[in-house]
Amino acid sequence: QVQVVESGGGLVQAGGSLRLSCTASGRTFSIYTMGWIRQAPGKEREFVARIRWSGSTTTYSDFVKGRFTISKDNAENTVYLQMNSLTAEDTAVYYCYADVLSTYYWGQGTQVTVSS
User: Fold this and answer.
1) b/e per residue, 1-14, with b = 16+ CB within 10 A?
2) Rounded mean pLDDT for each run of 10 residues along the chain, 116 residues in total
3) What angle do CA 56, 65, 98 make, to 5 degrees?
4) CB within 8 A of 39, min separation 6: which ones?
5) 56 phi and psi, to 5 degrees?
6) Partners of 22 in the β-ladder
7) Which residues on adjacent β-strands are paired with residue 31?
């Protein structure tokens, strides 16, 4: 199994930046991708970004392209989500996940609140 723990959320003004971290533990050698999804109040969860654990192929949703950057440090088993030019629409709980052969392991979520 794999465990993931997020950190780095908080309150920021519109136009500001935050960096989220997600650290995996357990059978990390079996991870295929790691990524982030978010859920805003009253809305469904939506995909944000992911990165291949082997190599560095990344995928982003259209609404974060050019603003968010996902990266990783394999030695630290950690994935980062650098979020710039934040808007109120980015307010949500952000969840990290690890994909192990299509079995998804989720973190507890971290709140990001952007004040306008």
Assistant:
1) ebebebebbeebee
2) 95 98 94 97 96 94 95 95 97 97 94 96
3) 45
4) 45, 46, 92, 93, 95, 109
5) -140, 25
6) 6, 79
7) none
What confidence score (pLDDT) does residue 55 get?
A: 87
3-state secondary structure of 4: strand
Tokens 């079996």 belong to 30
Q: List C-alpha distances in Å: 105 to 2, 80, 114.
A: 6, 17, 27
- Return the HEC string of the chain: CEEEEEECCEEEECCCCEEEEEEEEECHHHCCEEEEEEECCCCCCEEEEEEECCCCCEEECCCCCCCEEEEEEHHHCEEEEEECCCCHHHCEEEEEEEEECCEEEECCCEEEEEEC
